[in-house]
Design a protein that fits this description.
The complex is a heterodimer.
Chain A (H helix, E strand, L loop, with lengths): L1 H28 L5 H18 L4 H24 L5 H20 L3 E3 L8 H4 L5 H23 L3 H11 L1 H6 L4 H27 L1 E3 L6 H16 L4 H24 L7 H13 L1 H8 L9
Antiparallel strand pairs in A: 1-2
Helix pairs in contact in A: 1-6, 1-9, 1-10, 1-11, 2-3, 2-4, 2-9, 3-4, 3-9, 6-11, 7-9, 10-11, 10-12
Chain B lengths: L1 E10 L7 E11 L4 E6 L5 H9 L6 E6 L2 E2 L5 H4 L3 E4 L13 H9 L13 H14 L16 H14 L4 E5 L7 H18 L2 E5 L3 H6 L3 E6 L2 E7 H6 L2 H12 L12
Parallel strand pairs in B: 3-8, 3-9, 6-7, 7-8
Antiparallel strand pairs in B: 1-2, 1-4, 4-5, 9-10
The chains are: A mainly alpha, B alpha/beta.
The complex binds adenosine-5'-diphosphate and magnesium ion.
Chain lengths: 295, 264
């Protein structure tokens, strides 16, 4: 049982990085970006191929981050320069990345068994791999939350936030909303690919299928975080995402333990997200004064 | 200070749905002039302001601000010299951000934004002093989200944001239309105060003839995409609502008075 929980925590911390990426597009920029399904697999592909070719795992992970940023840039350009709707731009990049990822890997999956990963140096201190992942994951997530808290408090960061909140006002105040949207997409997808690289190394393989449904997992984690741990303050909002991602993994581990077939996982997650997203409507429906409430 | 020269603007040109919104409009405004702009629904008032602000490109003609041709500049570049307040109180402020955050964004209008912290302690003092003068009690809750404010408070805040960094031209598009009459009057007083203090070149669209006469030192009436009346100086001071109604009747052949909103 304890093994299941620590396993869930370690996985949750790595997915927290991806969750923060989804949060940046979904909550800050106010767009649903499906690029992430491609960029998470891209991160895994670049890291796995890099490591197999003998690159230092940290360098391979950094390259994965850069690859994700490039994917975000493409979606941003499709949306802002070619005026393709954001949702469709993301889908186009996601589809294209499928082929790109296969080219990067040269096949549908790569095993990383017995290879050096970013966790190896911690394991060499005699740490069990799961604990190595938790230690490194915690350090990374802490650094990331602090870095993003700082960044979104700067002038550029504020400009990105106001772009999602009120683009008309942003432009009236001299903000180039095309630039801020692209920047947000770059940061988001960079983080998602980074997360993909960390996940691939933790499970010792990369798979081209890995991204399928990941957007829903990201959204589920965002929503769980907001509902259970939500705070007003930006730092609190970021930490809530990490807790949300970990909680999601624990929930999943428990329902699997209770005997739910693994194949039903995506259905389960999709239903959970649908319910969570419809909470406002459900609440209003249950409200006896709903006929007087006009929104 | 502002020159709109021979501007034509149509929507969906070349299709059967073509809608001509501005026909060869020319207006020149001197520094410190305060124009009130009136006209029936669809006269082209908002389109004129949007063409100045760069929300829409023009089909023909040019726009100059302070002798600089801005016709080809995108909206966010023109923002450096323009202050704007919109009809919808939701449009001018960011609901999910705090009062001081909104002000800090406005304070940097036209400046390069970098990796400095988005708001400094010194600025907070400045904002507090400005907010105090609005007399809305906002100075004591500068960190609350703007979404919690009333429409009138949000418009007053948007006005402050538009003038915090002095614009060369202030554009107000029916910025009191969505407010109740009492709040509208208060927001107009604040407008007057800010315009006078900063000697702002201002173009204010209003649907209220009394306000159009009471405020400003020049009055322009538009009809079907053209300027049909342009009055300033002593003549404007002597103007009455009846005069305006008669003039409108002459140009349009319609009874302006039927439109109750215009007299409210
Ligand atoms: N974005 C737009 N698309 C199509 N037609 C528009 C648009 N904006 C304005 N129009 C048309 O242009 C004309 C002038 O509109 P507008 O400038 O909004 O008038 P006013 O502000 O004086 O009421 C109207 O006939 C309106 O239907
Ligand atoms: Mg209008």
């Amino acid at each position: 049982m304890l093994d299941i929980i620590t396993g869930a925590i370690s996985l949750g911390l790595l997915w927290a990085v991806m969750t923060i990426g989804v949060f940046i597009t979904y909550r800050i920029l106010n767009i649903a970006d499906l690029t992430v399904e491609g960029s998470i697999a891209m991160g895994a592909a670049i890291a796995a191929q890099g490591i197999t070719m003998g690159l230092n795992p940290f360098l391979a992970t950094a390259l994965a981050l850069a690859g994700g940023m490039a994917a975000g840039l493409i979606t941003g350009l499709l949306h802002t320069q070619l005026k393709i709707p954001a949702l469709l731009s993301g889908i186009l990049t996601m589809i294209a990345l499928w082929s790109v990822n296969l080219r990067i890997m040269g096949k549908a999956n790569i095993s990383l068994l017995r290879m050096n990963t970013v966790y190896t140096f911690l394991e060499s201190f005699g740490m069990d791999k799961t604990y190595a992942i938790i230690v490194l994951g915690l350090l990374l997530v802490l650094a990331l939350v602090s870095l993003l808290y700082w960044f979104f408090g700067t002038e550029i960061g504020s400009a990105i936030r106001v772009t999602g909140n009120n683009p008309h006002m942003a432009r009236a105040l001299g903000i180039n909303t095309n630039t801020t949207l692209i920047l947000g997409l770059i940061i988001s997808n960079g983080l998602v690919a980074f997360s993909g690289a960390l996940i691939a190394q933790s499970q010792s393989y990369a798979d081209v299928q890995m991204g399928t449904g990941s957007i829903v997992i990201g959204l589920a984690s965002v929503i769980i975080g907001e509902v259970l741990f939500g705070r007003q303050h930006f730092f609190g909002r970021l930490t809530a995402l990490v807790l949300g991602a970990v909680t999601y993994r624990i929930i999943i581990a428990l329902v699997l333990k209770l005997g739910m077939p693994a194949n039903d996982l995506k259905l389960f997650t999709a239903i959970t997200v649908a319910i969570a997203l419809s909470l406002p409507v459900i609440k209003q429906y249950l409200n006896p004064h709903r006929f007087r409430e006009v929104e | 200070m502002l020159l709109v020269k021979d501007v034509c603007k149509s929507f969906f040109p070349g299709t059967i749905n073509e809608k001509i919104a501005l026909k060869d409009v020319t207006v020149e405004m001197q520094e410190g002039e305060f124009v009130t702009l009136i006209g029936g629904n669809g006269a082209g008032k908002s389109t004129l302001l949007n063409c100045v602000a760069g929300v829409y490109g023009v089909n023909r003609g040019s726009v100059y601000v302070d002798d600089i041709d801005v016709t080809r500049l995108p909206e966010h570049k023109r923002a450096a010299v323009l202050g704007r307040v919109f009809q919808d109180p939701m449009m001018g402020t960011a609901a999910n951000m705090g009062i001081e955050e909104n002000l800090a964004l406005a304070y940097r209008r036209g400046e390069k934004r970098g990796l400095r912290w988005g708001i400094t302690r010194k600025e907070r003092e400045l904002y507090r002093r400005h907010l105090e003068r609005l007399e809305l009690g906002l100075e004591d809750r500068m960190d609350i989200k703007v979404g919690l404010l009333s429409g009138g408070q949000r418009q007053a805040l948007t006005l402050l944001m538009a003038t915090l960094k002095k614009p060369k031209v202030l554009l107000l598009d029916e910025h009191t239309a969505a407010l109740d009459p009492k709040t509208a009057q208060r927001v107009l007083e604040i407008t007057q105060q800010l315009v006078e203090e900063n000697n702002l070149t201002t173009m204010m669209v209003t649907h209220n003839m009394r306000d159009a006469i009471k405020y400003g030192n020049r009055l322009i009436m538009m009809h079907e995409g053209q300027i049909v009346l342009d009055i300033n100086g002593e003549e404007k001071k002597k103007l009455t609502v009846e005069d305006l109604l008669r003039r409108f009747g002459q140009v349009s052949g319609e009874e302006f008075a039927n439109d109750r909103a215009l007299l409210s």
